[in-house]
Predict the structure of HAD superfamily hydrolase.
Amino acid sequence: MIKLIAIDLDGTLLDGQKRISERNKQALQQAKAQGVKVVLCTGRPLRAIEPFLHELALQDEGDYSITFNGGLVQKNDTGEVMERATLEVSDVQSLVALAEELDLPMDVLSHDTVIILDPSKNHKTLYPELSPLLHRETAKAAELPVDRLYNKVVVGYHPEYLDEQIKKIPAAVREQYEVIKTRENLLEFMPKGITKAYGISLLAKDLGIEQAEVMCIGDEENDLPMIEYAGIGVAMENAIPRVKAIADVVTDSNEADGVAKVVEKYVLR
């Protein structure tokens, strides 16, 4: 029996207009009423998903989210952090040096703030436009304080150029960090071993839920670990081929209530 549903947002729960369909909303609300934990699992900070949590009525005591691609496990009603894994300032500075070499923009997220680092002289970051609900600061990497929390480093830029530069990232960097594309115009760097599956496994352990009792639904590269981890791993019809290949189930697309259909079939009584 499924006791926890972890759901990606973009390309999964949200349609192309960043909306939650009525059928998806009703299915998830019914699952919650049935006692199932409905957990949004995203690369975004909690602040950036609050409108969706409100829409889904997931801001009560006992509601949780996985944010920063597994870097934080949080209580939705208070924002309290239950589990965390973050980068050191030295990691941020090392990655900024890489961005300078590759002539890429780069920013770092700290809680609900995006710190714009601006290492490229030729390419301006698109990340603040991708996450308009976040606070913004500008800083130089060398001036970042040691004692501040750094959740992840991001590169938001046009996909054609971004994809060409991604090919140039050294193998040593990939061995040191999780390097994942979460959208066509967004590349993210996380501490090694920190994935959505990591965050979900910690939350499941805290709640006394077995791995076999978890359903995970996603579509992109950063969803691969959680779909592989889940008792029932679900790929959207619009998912990348690698996600479909490892999924237990392929549901309809994010434009056709795919989340609702798989929840109705495997979870609702």
